[in-house]
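(Fold this chain)
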Amino acid sequence: MQPRPTDPQHQSTPEFGSDPSLPPHKGQPSASHGGPKGKQLEREQREAEWLRLALGILLEEGYLGLTMDRLAKATGYAKGTLYLHFKNKEDLICALLRDFQVKRMELFDRVADLDLPHRARLAAIGLAAELFPLAYPENARIEPVLKTQSLRDKASPERLRALEEIDLFCFSRVLQTVQAAVDAGELRMQAHETPEQLVMALWSMHVGLNVLRNTTAHLTDTCSTTDSPPHEVLFPIAQRLLDGYGWQPLSTEFDYAGLRQQLLREPLSAEAERAWQASGIRLL
């Protein structure tokens, strides 16, 4: 399996808005920390505060509204100091995205090894993938910024590689589950098919729906009903697709819809509640 990624700058980043991990706001004295570890902690806390402020500017004023000058004014630090940490604003956006993507990786990790049949584990990972953009809609709003090649060219290779490593890790978690089902004889693939192709198809469905929800909601709304809002569309379709592959146990033999509700109660209850708070979508 793909090795678990680490931060290109440091091993951990304090979460946005977490009071114990954030330094005092501008004008307030910060606690002093002695030694290299203390200095590293101060650096991490300072970056976390900058990222929190940058996220607010990006969400309120958009990509063009976020500049290093604007962020320097908001933080009270000189622009040159910001450049010691981030190559440019695209680099900074990479760091923002990485913190969100780490949360997605942790969601996948939480369900990927549950004591369930392989296909049910895949359904759990699929639910985690569905839940992530609802619980963290900020990620879905800022991720497209780095999709154009011109913007990616401006970010540092280290920051981009850190994002790519998380993608590869999450992809490998899905692939590991599919391959295990093939090895166990629960999923038989045609000679011209590979587990990677099936994973890519399922991955594309989730990514595609998330892009559509944030760019052309008028289209996704056409498939929405009271009982099945857009974000729930993929779950039953994926089950029918996997039934077509003959992946055991079939949906006529296993209650995947019931598993979905069970997972939303535990172990994904915190994210389900966050989705309600952040996106106004009630999953239970």
In short: The two ends are 33 Å apart (CA to CA). DSSP finds 13 helices and no strands in the chain. Residues 10-32 have pLDDT under 50 and may be disordered.
